[in-house]
Amino acid sequence: MRDGAARHGLISGRVQGVYYRESTRQEAQRLGITGWVRNLGDGRVECHLEGSVEVLAHLERWLWQGPAAARVTGVELEEVACAGFTDFQVRRTDA
User: Fold this and answer.
1) CA–CA separation, 76 vs 54, rounded Å?
2) Residue 91 in this model has a pLDDT that exceeds 70
3) Which of 21, 30, 44, 61 is catalytic?
4) Rounded mean pLDDT of the chain?
5) Cβ atoms of 1 and 56 closer than 8 Å
6) CATH number of the domain bearing residue 28
């Protein structure tokens, strides 16, 4: 992504088994963000997000809420290099 930004993130709380990954994929696609999201073995969700700074900020706010059944207690995002993803995927659990 030429003029974009990328973030790597970890989301904690009740974020597994509550449709969090699929909801994140849907919101990212709606915003035109590429990357991926997956569950981690420790109960957190991990993500890599690529898009404009403005849309990434919007998705970051959404990550704090998530779907209705989620109870998010933490969102940690750090700037990383863009990897050039062309879509947004739900990846398999990292168990």
Assistant:
1) 17
2) yes
3) 21
4) 94
5) no
6) 3.30.70.100
Q: For residues 36 and 38, what is the distance between their CA atoms, to the nearest angstrom?
A: 7
Q: Strand, helix or coil at 60? A: helix
Using one digit for the tens of pLDDT, what is the confidence trace for 15-56?
A: 999 999 999 999 999 999 999 999 999 999 999 999 999 999
Are 85 and 8 contacting, i.e. CB atoms less than 8 angstroms apart?
no
pLDDT for 3 equals 66
Range of the domain at 20: 8-83
Q: Which of 39, 44, 61, 71 is catalytic?
A: 39
Is 21 an active-site residue? yes
Annotated catalytic residue 44? no
pLDDT in the model for residue 93: 74
Question: What does the pLDDT look like over 46-89, one tens digit per residue?
Answer: 999 999 999 999 999 999 999 999 999 999 999 999 999 999 99
Number of folded domains in the chain?
1
Q: Is residue 62 part of a domain?
A: yes
